[in-house]
Design goal:
alpha+beta, five-stranded antiparallel sheet, about 250 residues
């Protein structure tokens, strides 16, 4: 996610027209902008004194970033086994050249391996247990990505996706979306670039999530080599409870 996309999303959290639509649909008495990167509820709607956290996404027709933890925080949040964490560290890469070289076991690195100081899925023995772990923990991971990042956080009840190209929006029931993903989707290694991504796909093979190495597009920033998750709009129509246009 570029800084422009990030700030576009933050601006949408305060969009008065969107607030008006949501207030009319949910019969909110008020809406408060949360603006906290540590929670999934970007805004809070209130029915009298009852808070309703809502996640706001201002994305393309395709996808937008949904979570950017460190590998340490992600592994801690999901009770990830050390073996899986160690394999993901190789897959995400490092900045330390000596650490990277130690992973090669005497082999010469390819151009892309050296560029990003990472190994791809096809380079890591027994990689299939990483995919298996993601599928065995699908519900926990899904809730972390779209509902709640910690036990003290009130889980997001709804997700609002505002499409950049036409300002149409959808309101998604997050509980229904979680249930649908757990039942209908599965994690797999991405088919391109020797397994440089992990994706959670629906029964049609279309991704609902994908995870990549932050910085794989060439941008050199402080979050490089962290696991970067994106959400896609390939969800079932059954999870959509409302549609509208910002006008």
């Amino acid at each position: 996610m570029s800084s422009t996309e990030y700030y576009d999303g933050k601006m949408m959290e305060g969009n008065i027209i969107l607030h008006s639509h949501l207030s009319n649909f949910f019969k909110f008495d008020s809406i408060v902008i949360k603006g906290d990167s540590k929670v999934k509820g970007d805004i809070i709607g209130y029915n009298i004194n009852t808070p309703v956290p809502i996640s706001i996404k201002h994305g393309s027709q395709k996808n937008t970033q949904v979570h950017l933890p460190t590998l340490h925080s992600f592994s801690k949040s999901t009770d990830m086994p050390e073996e899986i964490t160690a394999m993901l560290e190789k897959w995400l890469g490092v900045t330390n050249q000596n650490t990277f070289i130690s992973w090669l076991n005497g082999k010469s690195p390819t151009k892309n391996q050296q560029k990003y100081k990472r190994l791809y899925a096809t380079d890591i023995p027994n990689w299939e247990i990483v995919v298996q772990w993601f599928n065995n923990n699908k519900e926990k991971i899904t809730k972390l990505l779209i509902q709640s990042m910690n036990s003290s956080d009130i889980p997001a009840k709804y997700l609002v996706w505002v499409f950049k190209n036409n300002k149409n929006f959808q309101v998604i029931d997050v509980d229904k979306l979680v249930d649908w993903i757990v039942k209908e989707c599965k994690w797999e290694t991405g088919p391109r670039n020797n397994g440089s991504t992990l994706r959670c796909v629906n029964t049609e093979g279309k991704p609902i999530f994908h995870m990549q190495m932050k910085g794989s597009g060439g941008y050199n920033g402080e979050y490089n080599h962290n696991p970067q998750f994106h959400i896609h709009t390939h969800w079932s129509p059954t999870v959509i409870i409302h549609k509208g246009t910002l006008e």
